[in-house]
Input
Amino acid sequence: MTESQIGKDSILTKAIGQVGAVEFLASSVADALHEKDEKDFPAKTALQTEIACLNDTLAIFRENLLLFAEQLVDADDGLLQGGLFTFMDVLCICTDKLVPVLSDLATLCTKSESRTSFLSRWLPSGASSRALESVSEAHDDIKVLQPLLPVVLLVLQEKISHQGQDVIADELIKRVAFGEAEGGAAPAASTSTLTLIELAARIKVEPFWYKVSPKLKRFREMIALTFAAMAEHQSPAAQASLYHKYAAPISTAVSSVISRDHGVKKSVETMREIDIGLLQRVWSIPDVPVIAALNSLTLPSVAVSQLLHVPYVGDDPVLSGLAVSFRVISAKPLPFSIAHLLPDPPPPSPSILQGLPGRRTPRPPTPPAPAATPPTLPLVLHFHGGGFLSGSSAAHENYLRQWAIETDFVIVSVDYRLAPQFKYPVAINECCFVYDWLTSAPNLGMHVGKIAIVGDSAGGNLAAAVCLKVTNDGLRQPDALILEYPALDSCPHLTFSRILFMNDPLVPVSASAICAEAYLSPEDNLRHPYVSPLYAPKEMLQRLPPTVITCAQFDPLCDDAVSFWQRLRHLGVAVRFKMYRQLPHGFLSLRALLPDAGFSVSESSAFLRELLLGLPPAQDGSDKSSAAADSRFPMFDNFN
Output
């Protein structure tokens, strides 16, 4: 990155300027307070102390930001995006809160005629005490970021020394965790390898991003309290009871919300002790029968949402004799019949219950009766997220149905088998089988015209891997690829976003480690293209179709998406990248909790229409999204 690139438009330049401005305001307030009489300003002493501490904090940030700028002068421009961009952006948001507080405080101290208007703003607690409270609260927001400064700077230095490549965590974690941020040898106590989970416990980084808005704060509390409530009722004895399995956690969550301080403290303790059972229970809540039934009442109405099962044919011995399941969704009645794929009605005997939760293999499909030539239609093939160990097509219907309505495309979502019962590469083989089954013949009842492969989170990993695999195996190449907040790097790297969000309430670093261990076997190569598509050889990546990559700003996986976008862009692949500001991981499914997430769902529909029909989102007259005109959602790149 050249000096001109760290210019007036740089988020780093903005952060440096904003910290300097707040320092100036704080110094002005300190000078003005010195002249005030404590009788007129009861909180003078406490406020002077708080302002002095604030100035010390700001000085630390200013010094470190200048070090960042020095490191970035000759670095690749991609380093100031993703997680590092988010760190600077949140710092700007936090310091922004201080500007009006300090400005009004300076006015109060220097201009008596402004006293009435200022007091009305701070009533009923009184001007000085309320000012102290507001300064302290905003200062606390900034202090939450302070422990991250040496860690982020160290990772930046390491990435630059490795020419922008991510570095394996082991030695770097030791240096960070034991206070060796300035370099040098770690103390003897650090001779054993530390994991990223242990680093998270040592530096105690709070999930700071929820401070950005009240909506995010409520969302964070809800997720954390849900984990805590589920953790209290996950013993084998409790799981045997329907009450303890479903009703008791809800009761516990409600009581935790009522006693918020106790509930949040309990949830923090729970997040440090997550295991695979707890993860599966929390992430599978949308598939709980009662929740799924209630959720179905809120889903957009479509003509078709049918789960189908097709016998697997292929080389994977684990899948031999089993059925592969997928859901077909269409906003309008299908112009072809899928009756030949519907399973036989269940027999009246209760013996069908004996096979649960396994899948019943249907009868072999009967060819449809000779009829008119099957229609040729565009199709979207979707792979759901859930860390490879939870999720289903039904749990993701809230946005899949909207896509179907807004695009008029047939959507097929695969219910691939989940870890740890089925490890890599079973899920990829199922997904590839469905792709080949759909595209090689009109097995569904239609010829597939253009086809887009779409995946979110772990499904994004599968989508990228399937694209690479079917192309490498000589099958038909997909026409488009859309990756929504994808997990593309299975290696234990320290990226900026993984550090910033290591204690994220939805995807904490411990959850990422659990998912990788559940999905992969010890002998699996973590850099294999189908395990970590980020490391696929350039010869494979150059053959990818036009690609859209989206990510959430407040997401541990943000840098996975940024790095993949940069690789494709440098290789000349037609690629578009979009970061959704101030949204967490999994935003496609969170419209009910975070209304801003609705922009992303509609914009994905626009991407699909553009990729498969060639219709620009702003010109086809059907774009229901206002995201394109919303500055909160900047597009970093267009198709090359």
